[in-house]
Design goal:
The chain is built from five helices and two strands; from the N terminus they run ααβαβαα. The chain has about 80 residues and is mainly alpha-helical. It has one domain. The protein has a two-stranded antiparallel ribbon with strand order 1-2. Helix 1 crosses helix 2. It is globular.
Length: about 80
């Protein structure tokens, strides 16, 4: 996850993205998970990921309620579970 990439994608300021992420964390909608690697240099370089506590919220945001067997993002759903 990159705040700069999100800001560009959404067309808003980077600080606004940071504030929104903080609000979503405080509301227990998302959580950030730092990378883990046995190599400390790789761990520091790798960006953290954002996960939703509830896949239903994620599905609502992307507008996809298809059956799991038909989904192209199955792996992402299982990773978040």
């Amino acid at each position: 996850m990159s705040y700069n990439e999100l800001a560009q994608l959404l067309g808003i300021d980077k600080n606004t993205v940071i504030n929104y992420i903080e609000i979503l964390e405080k509301a227990f909608i998302i959580f950030k998970l730092k990378s883990f690697s046995r190599n400390l240099i790789n761990e520091i370089k790798t960006n953290q990921k954002i996960y939703f506590y509830d896949n239903g919220i994620r599905n609502t945001i992307i507008g996809n309620y298809s059956n799991l067997a038909l989904r192209a993002d199955k792996g992402l759903l299982w990773e978040t579970s």
